[in-house]
Amino acid sequence: MRAVLLTGFGGPEKLAYREDVPEPQAGPGEVRIRVAATAINNTDIWTREGAYGSPDAPGASAGWRREPLEFPRIQGADVVGRIDQIGTGVPESRLGERVIVDPMLYTGGERELVDTEYLGSERDGGFAEFTTVPAQNAHPIDSDLSDAELAAGALPHRLRDGDAHAEPSWSPAPPAESARR
Q: How confident is the model at residue 167 (pLDDT cuts 50, 70, 90)?
């Protein structure tokens, strides 16, 4: 598959376009998404730069969780696409759904947020043709907005209360020319 890989901490020179990256497979409780659009946000930039530091060394290079990253990594947290593969335990009816992804990856309630991972930092994200996420992080979306508009609008306007079917109450700016389609 085609993907942009982060090969280490640094500037844009640490990004490498590849066409031979293995396609991810949906594991149990997961869905695979054929990516239609992924926006770039500040977390993608700061993760690439290793700007988060660590609890013991604020100046150290680290990912979003303030821990070392494994390279190469596929970044991209703000993903929109269609589910094209399901793992065991996921209803077959999810195949083909247009979804927007919640990049905060955790299981449980509010307390578990302390141990969350972030898509594109601790787990491969959407700067690729395909990505996988837990099924509960792929929210069906019914909107007239384009995939690029939804991906770009996801950053400042996260969907609230699990109401992904509602029309957004915001109007995003036109997508940048660099938005992946």
A: very low
In three-state form (DSSP H/G/I as H, E/B as E, the rest C), the secondary structure along 62-81 is ECCCCCCCCCCEECCCEEEE
Residue 23 has which token pair?
């396609």
Q: Can you give the length of the chain in residues? A: 181
Please report the pLDDT score of residue 174 as a whole number.
38
Sign of CA dihedral 87, 91, 96, 98: negative
Handedness of CA 55, 119, 165, 30 (dihedral sign): negative
- Contact present, 80 and 94 (Cβ < 8 Å): no
How far apart CA 15 and CA 157 sit, in angstroms, is: 27
Closest among 158, 162, 166, 167 to 136, alpha carbons compared: 162
Domains detected in the chain: 3-154 (3.90.180.10)
Q: What is the pTM of this model?
A: 0.81
Are the C-beta atoms of residues 78 and 180 closer than 8 Å to each other? no
